[in-house]
Amino acid sequence: MLKNDLLLRAARGEKVERTPVWLMRQAGRILPEYREVRAKMGGFKELVENPEFACEVTIQPVDHLGVDAAIIFSDILVIPEAMGLPYQMVEKRGPWFENTIQSAADIDRMIVAEADDVRYTIDAIAMTKKELDGRVPLIGFAGAPWTIFSYMIEGSGSKTFSNAKKFLYTEPILAHKLLEKITLSTINYLKGQVAAGADLVQVFDSWAGILSPEQYREFALPYIARICDAIDEVPITVFAKGAFFIRKELGGLNCQTIGLDWNMDAKESRELIGSSKTLQGNLDPCVLYANDEVIVAKTKEMLQAFGPNRHIANLGHGVYPDIDPRKVKLFVDTVKEFRF
Ligand code: CP3
Q1: Would you tell me which CATH number, out of the four given (1.20.1730.10, 3.20.20.210, 3.40.190.10, 3.40.640.10), belongs to the domain 6-278?
Q2: What pTM does this model have?
Protein backbone atom coordinates (compact mmCIF):
# COMPACT_ATOMS: atom_id res chain seq x y z
CA MET A 1 0.00 0.00 0.00
CA LEU A 2 1.25 3.48 -0.87
CA LYS A 3 1.29 6.08 1.91
CA ASN A 4 1.50 8.88 -0.66
CA ASP A 5 -0.36 8.06 -3.88
CA LEU A 6 -0.99 11.66 -5.01
CA LEU A 7 0.86 11.09 -8.28
CA LEU A 8 -1.22 8.07 -9.23
CA ARG A 9 -4.50 9.70 -8.25
CA ALA A 10 -3.61 12.82 -10.24
CA ALA A 11 -2.65 10.66 -13.23
CA ARG A 12 -6.00 8.85 -13.11
CA GLY A 13 -7.91 12.12 -12.74
CA GLU A 14 -9.05 11.41 -9.17
CA LYS A 15 -9.36 14.01 -6.41
CA VAL A 16 -6.15 15.20 -4.76
CA GLU A 17 -5.60 17.39 -1.67
CA ARG A 18 -2.79 19.20 -3.46
CA THR A 19 -0.82 19.03 -6.71
CA PRO A 20 1.88 16.32 -6.67
CA VAL A 21 5.42 17.25 -7.69
CA TRP A 22 8.58 15.53 -8.93
CA LEU A 23 11.35 16.49 -11.39
CA MET A 24 12.57 14.87 -14.55
CA ARG A 25 16.23 13.89 -14.06
CA GLN A 26 15.94 14.25 -10.29
CA ALA A 27 17.85 10.99 -9.74
CA GLY A 28 21.49 11.99 -9.69
CA ARG A 29 23.21 14.97 -11.23
CA ILE A 30 22.15 17.73 -8.84
CA LEU A 31 22.67 16.04 -5.47
CA PRO A 32 26.09 16.00 -3.76
CA GLU A 33 25.00 12.63 -2.31
CA TYR A 34 24.84 11.26 -5.89
CA ARG A 35 28.25 12.61 -6.80
CA GLU A 36 29.70 10.90 -3.73
CA VAL A 37 28.26 7.52 -4.67
CA ARG A 38 29.26 8.02 -8.30
CA ALA A 39 32.86 8.83 -7.37
CA LYS A 40 33.04 5.58 -5.41
CA MET A 41 31.73 3.59 -8.35
CA GLY A 42 33.87 4.92 -11.17
CA GLY A 43 31.47 5.57 -14.00
CA PHE A 44 27.85 6.19 -14.93
CA LYS A 45 27.32 2.76 -16.48
CA GLU A 46 28.72 0.93 -13.47
CA LEU A 47 26.17 2.80 -11.38
CA VAL A 48 23.28 1.98 -13.71
CA GLU A 49 24.28 -1.68 -13.84
CA ASN A 50 24.55 -2.06 -10.06
CA PRO A 51 21.04 -2.45 -8.54
CA GLU A 52 22.15 -1.56 -4.97
CA PHE A 53 23.63 1.75 -6.09
CA ALA A 54 20.80 2.49 -8.52
CA CYS A 55 18.37 1.90 -5.65
CA GLU A 56 20.30 4.23 -3.35
CA VAL A 57 20.49 7.04 -5.91
CA THR A 58 16.80 6.63 -6.81
CA ILE A 59 15.72 7.20 -3.21
CA GLN A 60 18.06 10.16 -2.54
CA PRO A 61 15.70 12.83 -3.97
CA VAL A 62 12.81 11.42 -1.93
CA ASP A 63 14.89 11.85 1.24
CA HIS A 64 16.59 15.14 0.37
CA LEU A 65 14.03 16.98 -1.77
CA GLY A 66 10.73 15.54 -0.50
CA VAL A 67 9.33 14.82 -3.97
CA ASP A 68 6.08 12.87 -4.41
CA ALA A 69 7.63 10.17 -6.62
CA ALA A 70 10.89 8.34 -7.24
CA ILE A 71 12.10 7.67 -10.79
CA ILE A 72 14.34 4.67 -11.26
CA PHE A 73 17.97 5.51 -11.92
CA SER A 74 18.83 4.11 -15.34
CA ASP A 75 19.04 5.48 -18.87
CA ILE A 76 17.01 5.26 -22.06
CA LEU A 77 20.13 3.92 -23.84
CA VAL A 78 19.94 0.53 -22.13
CA ILE A 79 17.50 -0.50 -24.89
CA PRO A 80 19.84 0.00 -27.89
CA GLU A 81 22.45 -1.87 -25.89
CA ALA A 82 20.06 -4.76 -25.14
CA MET A 83 19.20 -4.89 -28.87
CA GLY A 84 22.87 -5.21 -29.83
CA LEU A 85 24.38 -1.70 -29.89
CA PRO A 86 26.46 -1.04 -26.76
CA TYR A 87 26.95 2.57 -25.64
CA GLN A 88 29.51 4.41 -23.58
CA MET A 89 28.87 7.45 -21.43
CA VAL A 90 31.81 9.74 -22.13
CA GLU A 91 32.66 12.04 -19.23
CA LYS A 92 31.37 15.60 -19.85
CA ARG A 93 30.36 14.74 -23.42
CA GLY A 94 27.47 12.31 -23.17
CA PRO A 95 26.55 9.06 -24.90
CA TRP A 96 28.67 7.51 -27.63
CA PHE A 97 28.10 4.35 -29.72
CA GLU A 98 31.01 2.57 -31.34
CA ASN A 99 28.70 1.02 -33.95
CA THR A 100 25.67 2.64 -35.51
CA ILE A 101 22.87 1.50 -37.82
CA GLN A 102 23.61 2.18 -41.48
CA SER A 103 22.10 -0.65 -43.52
CA ALA A 104 19.46 -3.37 -43.76
CA ALA A 105 22.01 -5.91 -42.50
CA ASP A 106 22.65 -3.77 -39.41
CA ILE A 107 18.92 -3.74 -38.66
CA ASP A 108 18.64 -7.51 -39.21
CA ARG A 109 21.37 -8.01 -36.62
CA MET A 110 19.38 -6.16 -33.94
CA ILE A 111 17.39 -8.42 -31.66
CA VAL A 112 14.04 -7.71 -30.03
CA ALA A 113 15.10 -7.26 -26.41
CA GLU A 114 13.38 -8.96 -23.50
CA ALA A 115 13.09 -7.34 -20.08
CA ASP A 116 15.60 -9.90 -18.85
CA ASP A 117 18.24 -8.35 -21.15
CA VAL A 118 18.08 -5.29 -18.86
CA ARG A 119 18.06 -7.43 -15.72
CA TYR A 120 20.01 -4.86 -13.66
CA THR A 121 17.30 -2.19 -14.00
CA ILE A 122 14.50 -4.70 -13.40
CA ASP A 123 16.32 -5.86 -10.24
CA ALA A 124 16.90 -2.23 -9.22
CA ILE A 125 13.15 -1.56 -9.52
CA ALA A 126 12.25 -4.56 -7.35
CA MET A 127 14.85 -3.54 -4.76
CA THR A 128 13.82 0.13 -4.76
CA LYS A 129 10.15 -0.75 -4.47
CA LYS A 130 10.93 -2.76 -1.35
CA GLU A 131 13.24 -0.13 0.08
CA LEU A 132 10.73 2.69 -0.51
CA ASP A 133 8.24 0.73 1.57
CA GLY A 134 5.28 2.58 0.04
CA ARG A 135 6.52 6.10 0.84
CA VAL A 136 5.94 7.33 -2.74
CA PRO A 137 5.20 5.70 -6.11
CA LEU A 138 8.09 4.49 -8.25
CA ILE A 139 8.22 5.66 -11.87
CA GLY A 140 9.69 3.42 -14.56
CA PHE A 141 10.63 4.76 -17.98
CA ALA A 142 11.91 4.15 -21.49
CA GLY A 143 12.83 6.28 -24.49
CA ALA A 144 10.22 6.62 -27.22
CA PRO A 145 11.05 4.64 -30.39
CA TRP A 146 11.96 7.72 -32.47
CA THR A 147 14.37 9.05 -29.81
CA ILE A 148 16.04 5.63 -29.43
CA PHE A 149 16.20 5.28 -33.22
CA SER A 150 17.91 8.67 -33.50
CA TYR A 151 20.73 7.56 -31.15
CA MET A 152 21.10 4.23 -32.98
CA ILE A 153 21.57 6.00 -36.33
CA GLU A 154 23.50 9.04 -35.12
CA GLY A 155 25.70 7.27 -32.58
CA SER A 156 25.82 10.24 -30.21
CA GLY A 157 23.96 13.37 -29.29
CA SER A 158 23.47 15.94 -32.04
CA LYS A 159 22.03 19.43 -32.45
CA THR A 160 20.08 18.49 -35.57
CA PHE A 161 19.92 14.68 -35.64
CA SER A 162 20.14 15.20 -39.39
CA ASN A 163 21.53 11.71 -40.07
CA ALA A 164 18.55 10.16 -38.29
CA LYS A 165 16.11 12.44 -40.13
CA LYS A 166 17.88 11.75 -43.42
CA PHE A 167 17.35 8.02 -42.85
CA LEU A 168 13.59 8.63 -42.52
CA TYR A 169 13.53 10.43 -45.90
CA THR A 170 15.87 8.09 -47.78
CA GLU A 171 15.13 4.68 -46.22
CA PRO A 172 11.55 4.85 -44.92
CA ILE A 173 10.93 1.10 -45.17
CA LEU A 174 14.10 0.26 -43.26
CA ALA A 175 13.28 2.98 -40.74
CA HIS A 176 9.92 1.38 -40.03
CA LYS A 177 11.61 -2.00 -39.65
CA LEU A 178 13.97 -0.68 -36.99
CA LEU A 179 11.24 1.33 -35.25
CA GLU A 180 9.16 -1.85 -35.08
CA LYS A 181 11.97 -3.74 -33.34
CA ILE A 182 12.56 -0.88 -30.92
CA THR A 183 8.84 -0.71 -30.14
CA LEU A 184 8.59 -4.43 -29.37
CA SER A 185 11.71 -4.22 -27.20
CA THR A 186 10.31 -1.21 -25.35
CA ILE A 187 6.99 -2.93 -24.66
CA ASN A 188 8.81 -5.99 -23.27
CA TYR A 189 11.02 -3.77 -21.14
CA LEU A 190 8.18 -1.61 -19.75
CA LYS A 191 6.09 -4.69 -18.99
CA GLY A 192 9.07 -6.10 -17.08
CA GLN A 193 9.38 -2.84 -15.14
CA VAL A 194 5.69 -2.98 -14.21
CA ALA A 195 5.97 -6.63 -13.14
CA ALA A 196 8.94 -5.67 -10.94
CA GLY A 197 6.91 -2.93 -9.22
CA ALA A 198 6.89 0.29 -11.28
CA ASP A 199 3.69 2.17 -10.35
CA LEU A 200 3.64 4.40 -13.44
CA VAL A 201 5.80 4.53 -16.56
CA GLN A 202 6.93 7.51 -18.63
CA VAL A 203 7.97 7.46 -22.27
CA PHE A 204 10.59 10.13 -23.08
CA ASP A 205 10.49 11.38 -26.67
CA SER A 206 13.29 13.86 -26.11
CA TRP A 207 13.91 14.57 -29.81
CA ALA A 208 10.25 14.73 -30.87
CA GLY A 209 10.53 18.43 -31.71
CA ILE A 210 13.15 17.80 -34.36
CA LEU A 211 10.70 16.04 -36.69
CA SER A 212 8.30 17.73 -39.05
CA PRO A 213 4.63 17.17 -38.15
CA GLU A 214 4.30 14.78 -41.13
CA GLN A 215 7.33 12.77 -40.02
CA TYR A 216 6.06 12.70 -36.46
CA ARG A 217 2.71 11.32 -37.63
CA GLU A 218 4.37 8.64 -39.73
CA PHE A 219 7.46 7.61 -37.74
CA ALA A 220 6.84 8.50 -34.11
CA LEU A 221 3.20 8.71 -33.02
CA PRO A 222 1.99 5.28 -34.23
CA TYR A 223 4.75 3.52 -32.26
CA ILE A 224 3.99 5.49 -29.10
CA ALA A 225 0.33 4.58 -29.58
CA ARG A 226 1.28 0.87 -29.71
CA ILE A 227 3.22 1.21 -26.46
CA CYS A 228 0.27 2.97 -24.79
CA ASP A 229 -2.11 0.25 -25.98
CA ALA A 230 0.19 -2.48 -24.67
CA ILE A 231 0.69 -1.05 -21.18
CA ASP A 232 -2.66 -1.28 -19.43
CA GLU A 233 -1.57 -2.30 -15.93
CA VAL A 234 -0.39 1.13 -14.71
CA PRO A 235 -0.83 4.78 -15.79
CA ILE A 236 1.47 5.92 -18.58
CA THR A 237 2.88 9.39 -19.32
CA VAL A 238 4.01 10.51 -22.76
CA PHE A 239 6.51 13.38 -22.90
CA ALA A 240 7.17 14.51 -26.46
CA LYS A 241 9.59 17.39 -26.03
CA GLY A 242 9.16 20.18 -28.54
CA ALA A 243 6.26 18.54 -30.36
CA PHE A 244 3.81 21.40 -29.82
CA PHE A 245 2.33 20.57 -33.24
CA ILE A 246 1.12 17.12 -32.18
CA ARG A 247 -0.70 17.99 -28.94
CA LYS A 248 -4.18 17.40 -30.38
CA GLU A 249 -3.20 13.89 -31.49
CA LEU A 250 -1.54 13.19 -28.13
CA GLY A 251 -4.98 13.78 -26.61
CA GLY A 252 -6.19 10.70 -28.48
CA LEU A 253 -3.55 8.33 -27.10
CA ASN A 254 -4.49 5.54 -24.74
CA CYS A 255 -2.49 7.11 -21.91
CA GLN A 256 -3.29 9.01 -18.72
CA THR A 257 -0.77 11.87 -18.70
CA ILE A 258 0.87 14.14 -21.28
CA GLY A 259 4.13 15.86 -20.34
CA LEU A 260 4.55 19.46 -21.55
CA ASP A 261 7.73 21.42 -22.08
CA TRP A 262 8.04 25.07 -21.07
CA ASN A 263 7.13 26.38 -24.52
CA MET A 264 3.67 24.87 -24.32
CA ASP A 265 1.03 27.14 -22.80
CA ALA A 266 -1.08 25.44 -20.10
CA LYS A 267 -4.49 26.68 -21.25
CA GLU A 268 -3.82 26.19 -24.95
CA SER A 269 -2.51 22.68 -24.23
CA ARG A 270 -5.62 21.84 -22.21
CA GLU A 271 -7.84 22.98 -25.09
CA LEU A 272 -5.88 20.98 -27.66
CA ILE A 273 -5.42 17.83 -25.55
CA GLY A 274 -8.89 17.81 -23.98
CA SER A 275 -10.13 17.11 -20.48
CA SER A 276 -9.47 13.36 -20.37
CA LYS A 277 -5.73 13.64 -19.74
CA THR A 278 -3.62 14.80 -16.83
CA LEU A 279 -1.00 17.39 -17.82
CA GLN A 280 2.53 17.29 -16.39
CA GLY A 281 5.02 20.13 -16.32
CA ASN A 282 6.17 22.66 -17.22
CA LEU A 283 8.25 25.29 -15.42
CA ASP A 284 11.27 26.46 -17.44
CA PRO A 285 14.22 24.65 -15.75
CA CYS A 286 16.18 27.94 -15.98
CA VAL A 287 13.75 29.59 -13.56
CA LEU A 288 15.66 27.65 -10.89
CA TYR A 289 18.71 29.85 -11.56
CA ALA A 290 16.69 32.90 -10.44
CA ASN A 291 16.38 34.30 -6.92
CA ASP A 292 13.97 32.79 -4.40
CA GLU A 293 11.19 35.34 -4.94
CA VAL A 294 11.17 34.70 -8.68
CA ILE A 295 11.15 30.92 -8.18
CA VAL A 296 8.18 31.09 -5.79
CA ALA A 297 6.25 33.52 -7.99
CA LYS A 298 6.82 31.58 -11.23
CA THR A 299 5.95 28.27 -9.57
CA LYS A 300 2.66 29.68 -8.21
CA GLU A 301 1.88 31.20 -11.62
CA MET A 302 2.35 27.78 -13.18
CA LEU A 303 0.08 26.08 -10.61
CA GLN A 304 -2.63 28.69 -11.24
CA ALA A 305 -2.35 28.28 -14.99
CA PHE A 306 -2.97 24.51 -14.79
CA GLY A 307 -5.56 24.68 -12.01
CA PRO A 308 -6.36 22.17 -9.25
CA ASN A 309 -7.40 19.22 -11.39
CA ARG A 310 -5.42 16.79 -13.50
CA HIS A 311 -2.02 18.43 -13.04
CA ILE A 312 1.34 16.98 -11.95
CA ALA A 313 3.90 19.72 -11.25
CA ASN A 314 7.30 19.25 -12.88
CA LEU A 315 9.83 21.18 -14.95
CA GLY A 316 9.44 21.47 -18.71
CA HIS A 317 12.50 19.21 -19.14
CA GLY A 318 15.13 17.63 -16.92
CA VAL A 319 16.72 19.64 -14.12
CA TYR A 320 20.15 20.97 -15.13
CA PRO A 321 23.18 19.56 -13.30
CA ASP A 322 24.46 22.92 -12.07
CA ILE A 323 21.25 24.01 -10.36
CA ASP A 324 21.54 24.53 -6.60
CA PRO A 325 19.68 21.68 -4.81
CA ARG A 326 18.35 24.29 -2.35
CA LYS A 327 16.53 26.04 -5.22
CA VAL A 328 15.13 22.70 -6.37
CA LYS A 329 13.81 22.12 -2.86
CA LEU A 330 12.25 25.58 -2.88
CA PHE A 331 10.36 24.66 -6.04
CA VAL A 332 9.19 21.38 -4.47
CA ASP A 333 8.18 23.06 -1.19
CA THR A 334 6.32 25.85 -2.99
CA VAL A 335 4.17 23.29 -4.80
CA LYS A 336 3.61 21.26 -1.62
CA GLU A 337 2.52 24.32 0.40
CA PHE A 338 0.25 25.77 -2.30
CA ARG A 339 -3.53 25.41 -1.94
CA PHE A 340 -6.19 26.57 -4.39
O1 CP3 B 1 15.03 11.19 -14.30
C2 CP3 B 1 15.93 10.64 -13.64
O3 CP3 B 1 16.61 11.25 -12.82
C4 CP3 B 1 16.15 9.15 -13.81
C5 CP3 B 1 17.31 8.77 -14.51
C6 CP3 B 1 17.49 9.17 -15.95
C7 CP3 B 1 18.78 9.34 -16.52
N8 CP3 B 1 18.63 9.51 -17.87
C9 CP3 B 1 20.06 9.29 -15.78
C10 CP3 B 1 21.23 9.96 -16.35
C11 CP3 B 1 16.56 9.33 -16.99
C12 CP3 B 1 15.04 9.31 -16.94
C13 CP3 B 1 17.29 9.52 -18.19
C14 CP3 B 1 16.65 9.65 -19.50
C15 CP3 B 1 17.45 10.08 -20.65
N16 CP3 B 1 18.73 9.75 -20.97
C17 CP3 B 1 16.94 10.85 -21.71
C18 CP3 B 1 15.52 11.33 -21.81
C19 CP3 B 1 15.22 12.46 -20.91
C20 CP3 B 1 15.75 13.78 -21.36
O21 CP3 B 1 16.47 14.39 -20.56
O22 CP3 B 1 15.44 14.21 -22.47
C23 CP3 B 1 17.98 11.04 -22.64
C24 CP3 B 1 17.88 11.83 -23.92
C25 CP3 B 1 19.11 10.32 -22.17
C26 CP3 B 1 20.44 10.17 -22.81
C27 CP3 B 1 21.53 10.73 -21.99
N28 CP3 B 1 21.95 10.21 -20.79
C29 CP3 B 1 22.35 11.85 -22.27
C30 CP3 B 1 22.19 12.73 -23.50
C31 CP3 B 1 23.25 12.00 -21.21
C32 CP3 B 1 24.42 12.95 -21.08
C33 CP3 B 1 24.02 14.31 -20.75
C34 CP3 B 1 23.24 14.46 -19.45
O35 CP3 B 1 22.03 14.65 -19.55
O36 CP3 B 1 23.85 14.35 -18.37
C37 CP3 B 1 22.95 10.99 -20.26
C38 CP3 B 1 23.66 10.77 -18.98
C39 CP3 B 1 22.84 10.61 -17.76
N40 CP3 B 1 21.67 9.93 -17.64
C41 CP3 B 1 23.21 11.12 -16.49
C42 CP3 B 1 22.19 10.71 -15.59
C43 CP3 B 1 22.14 10.94 -14.10
C44 CP3 B 1 24.47 11.90 -16.15
C45 CP3 B 1 25.59 10.96 -15.99
C46 CP3 B 1 26.62 11.46 -15.01
O47 CP3 B 1 27.50 12.18 -15.48
O48 CP3 B 1 26.53 11.09 -13.85
Answers
A1: 3.20.20.210
A2: 0.97
